[in-house]
């Protein structure tokens, strides 16, 4: 999947960045796992560079 993401990213021309602010206790601490498994790959495929910051 990462190879496909890199191909899409290289062909898109302009880079897009997204900052995700993550509450580590959200959804009984399961949200980070879901974010990395589902959301992050979709954003990468869309040509975004994803930066995840955790709150305290």
Q: What's the total helix number?
A: 2
Which outline best applies?
elongated
Q: Uncertain runs with pLDDT below 50, 5 residues or more?
A: none
Main-sheet strand order equals 1-2
What is the tally of beta strands? 2
Largest sheet: 2 strands, parallel
Element-by-element helix/strand order: HEHE
Radius of gyration: 13 Å
Number of domains: 1
Arithmetic mean pLDDT: 82
The fraction of residues in strands falls at: 25-35%
Percent helix, as a range, is 40-55%
Report the span from N to C terminus: 31 Å
What structural class do you assign from the helix and strand content?
alpha+beta
Describe this structure in words.
This protein has one domain. A two-stranded parallel sheet has the order 1-2. It contains two helices and two strands. It is elongated. Helix 2 links the parallel strand 1 and strand 2. It is of the alpha+beta class and 56 residues long.
How would you summarize the topology of this molecule?
Elements: H1 2-11, E1 16-22, H2 31-45, E2 48-54
Parallel strand pairs: 1-2
Organism: Glossina morsitans morsitans (Savannah tsetse fly)
Protein name: DAGKc domain-containing protein
InterPro entries: ATP-NAD_kinase_N, Diacylglycerol_kinase_cat_dom
Outline of the structure:
The chain is built from two helices and two strands.
Give keywords:
45% helix, 56 residues, two-stranded parallel ribbon, alpha+beta
């Amino acid at each position: 999947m990462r190879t496909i993401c890199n191909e899409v990213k290289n062909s898109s021309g302009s880079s897009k960045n997204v900052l995700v602010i993550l509450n580590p206790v959200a959804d009984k601490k399961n949200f980070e796992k879901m974010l990395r498994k589902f959301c992050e790959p979709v954003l990468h495929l869309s040509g975004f560079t994803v930066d995840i910051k955790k709150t305290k």
